């Protein structure tokens, strides 16, 4: 997006970032609608990390090296993140009485879905739909190993792939946590380079890659970026504001 002239005139670290860092892993997301309230289903407002074995690094490496996604039906998904957003939302029962929802996330190589990357969303064909649904069912089977009482409560079932992530959040290869979290990503040079100020007038970076992955990382990145744009310490401003509010409570 930046012309060679702009890059030549400004000593920006952006070319070095592009050449040394790479996108993170792709992700599969499973969205399940459940029949029953959080009380009826005993759903807790918390997150669960589910591991299928004790050798996580080995199992994860083997899983991510699979190039034929049909093989996934015969292997254990090494890691699942499971959460019940409806249990965390005090207004959910008012808006959707008698129902709950579950979100399940795991890693998935971009290469499994790359063949459909140029197809329009919701029109990728039967083979794509069957593959992602099979993967989603495998994820749900593992989830129900821990929550067996949810197995017959399913009202809605939808699977998002790395292509979904690329379409809806413009991720490069279906990643949801930005840059790959390897050692080079957290090297002193990368940390210096991935700051909001690009040294190109008027161009600032923000988002989780400026700090670290996830919602909290993205929020702090926004604060750092605001500090760079405004030329002041917004963190200090917020700390003073908090103190002033507390004083008048």
Q: What features would you describe in this structure?
A:
The protein has eleven helices and five strands. It is globular, with a radius of gyration of 22 Å. The chain has 249 residues and is α+β, with helices and mostly antiparallel strands. Strands 2-3-4-1-5 form a five-stranded antiparallel beta sheet.
Briefly characterize the structure:
The protein is 40% helix and 14% strand. It has 249 residues and is of the alpha+beta class.
Sheet with most strands: 5 strands, antiparallel
Helix amount: 40-55%
- Outline type: globular
Rounded radius of gyration (Å): 22 Å
The arrangement of helices and strands along the chain is: HHEHEHEHHEHEHHHH
Give the DSSP E fraction (strand runs of 2 or more residues): 5-15%
Residue ranges: pLDDT <50 for 5 or more in a row?
A: none
Output the structural class. Answer: alpha+beta
Number of helices: 11
* Overall strand count: 5
The termini sit apart by 49 Å
Q: What topology does this entry show?
A:
Layout: H1 4-9, H2 14-20, E1 27-35, H3 38-41, E2 47-51, H4 56-64, E3 79-83, H5 85-88, H6 92-95, E4 99-107, H7 126-146, E5 154-160, H8 162-169, H9 188-193, H10 214-230, H11 234-247
Antiparallel strand pairs: 1-4, 1-5, 2-3, 3-4
């Amino acid at each position: 997006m930046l012309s060679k002239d702009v890059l030549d005139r400004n000593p920006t670290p952006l070319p070095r970032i592009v050449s040394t860092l790479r996108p993170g892993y792709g992700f599969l997301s499973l969205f399940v609608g459940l029949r029953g309230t959080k009380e009826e289903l005993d759903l807790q407002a918390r997150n669960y990390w589910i591991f299928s074995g004790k050798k996580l690094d080995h199992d994860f490496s083997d899983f991510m090296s699979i190039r034929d996604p049909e093989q996934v039906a015969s292997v254990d998904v090494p890691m699942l993140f499971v959460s019940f957003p409806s249990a965390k939302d005090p207004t959910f029962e008012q808006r959707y009485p008698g129902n709950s929802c579950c979100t399940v996330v795991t890693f998935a190589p971009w290469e499994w879905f790359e063949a459909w990357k140029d197809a329009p969303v919701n029109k990728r064909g039967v083979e794509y739909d069957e593959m992602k649904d099979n993967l989603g069912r495998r994820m749900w089977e593992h989830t129900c190993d821990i929550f067996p009482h949810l197995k017959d409560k399913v009202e809605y079932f939808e699977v998002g792939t790395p292509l979904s992530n690329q379409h809806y959040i413009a991720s490069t290869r279906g990643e949801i946590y930005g840059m790959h979290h390897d050692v080079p990503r957290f090297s002193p040079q990368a940390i210096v380079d991935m700051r909001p100020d690009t040294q190109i007038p008027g161009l600032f970076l923000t988002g989780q890659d400026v700090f670290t992955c996830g919602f909290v990382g993205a929020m702090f990145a926004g604060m750092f970026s605001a500090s760079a744009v405004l030329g002041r310490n917004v963190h200090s401003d917020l700390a003073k504001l908090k103190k002033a509010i507390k004083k008048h409570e």
